[in-house]
Write a structure and sequence with these properties.
This is Class I SAM-dependent methyltransferase. This protein is α/β, with parallel strands linked by helices and about 280 residues long. It is built from 10 helices and 11 strands. The strands form 3 sheets. The chain has a 7-stranded mixed sheet with strand order 3-2-1-4-5-11-8, sandwiched between helices. The chain has a two-stranded antiparallel sheet with strand order 6-7.
Length: about 280
């Protein structure tokens, strides 16, 4: 169900001005807003072999390649991978894109093959088990390699985003549950006139403690965790304002809400008893 949804939306996302694919072609120095936001935390990635899990159109993947990393992008949507390959061919530098489920990444790409695993905004919510995902991350990283993750905050995912009265009301799960939240929506998060036929999707929230604990259990050492008061889309329509750089923030008293977070963790030398798959 989720794959059909993303396959149908990929061409519309590629055509939308919100992703701005033409800017990557026209300006060889252009970076995605998401990568640019985290440049002070990301540091120097030149010479690193990196993989971007759940890469969608590959704008973040390409941006990391422009910062000097040798990048691979992986996504379960064939349509998304097709669009990402087109962008890389037109804009450069070269990026390898692989069509595969994220849970098969170690088998497909190789164990311990990467210095950097990158995951961007809006990825973890599509996965039913954060513990299983952490195993994939650990399996892909060489000892000393690092995970770099920026995600929507689980508090944000738990809010009732249909309210327009300024009240922040918790409506959906904060913690991971076996059963997903099932949605039926004919739109998407970018500007487009397309109305889609594949409208149903399933998502899961993962509490911040669950994410951290899952990574620690797989032998990763947390080196950074920062919460931010902005998010790169209109997460609460009618309640947010632009703050520049593609970011939006709650207009009234934004300190009430953690919008997103950035996490970094390093894989230690394999400790006894830690599973990596």
């Amino acid at each position: 169900m989720n794959r059909a949804l993303w396959d149908e939306r990929a061409p519309a996302h590629a055509a939308s001005p919100d992703y701005g694919l033409a800017r990557f072609v026209d300006d060889p120095e252009h970076l995605s807003d998401v990568v640019r936001f985290d440049l002070p935390r990301l540091g120097d990635v030149s010479g690193l072999r990196g993989v971007h899990l759940q890469c969608h159109l590959g704008t973040d993947t390409l941006s990391l390649a422009r910062r000097g990393a040798t990048m691979t992008g992986l996504d379960f949507s064939a349509a998304s991978v097709e669009q990402a390959r087109r962008l890389a061919a037109a804009a450069g530098p070269a990026v390898e894109y692989v069509h595969a489920d994220v849970h098969d990444a170690v088998e497909v790409l190789g164990a311990g093959a990467f210095d950097l695993v990158y995951t961007g905004i809006g990825a973890l919510c599509w996965l039913p088990s954060v513990e299983r995902w952490a195993g994939v991350v650990a399996g892909l990283l060489r000892p000393g390699g690092r995970l770099f993750l920026r995600e929507a905050h689980p508090v944000l995912w738990a809010l009732d985003d249909a309210r327009d009265d300024g009240v922040l009301a918790l409506r959906y799960p904060y913690v991971e549950r076996v059963e997903p939240d099932v949605w039926d929506e004919d739109g998407t998060y970018v500007a487009t006139d397309v109305r889609f036929t594949h409208t149903r999707s399933s998502t899961w929230n993962h509490g911040l403690g669950e994410v951290v604990t899952a990574l620690l259990a797989r032998g990763l050492r947390l080196t950074m965790l920062q919460e931010h008061d902005s998010v790169p889309w209109d997460a609460l329509p009618g309640l947010m304002e632009d703050v520049g750089g593609g970011e939006k923030r709650l207009r009234e008293a934004p300190w009430r809400l953690p919008h997103t977070y950035t996490l970094q963790a390093v894989k230690e030398a394999d400790p006894a008893g830690v599973r990596a798959g």
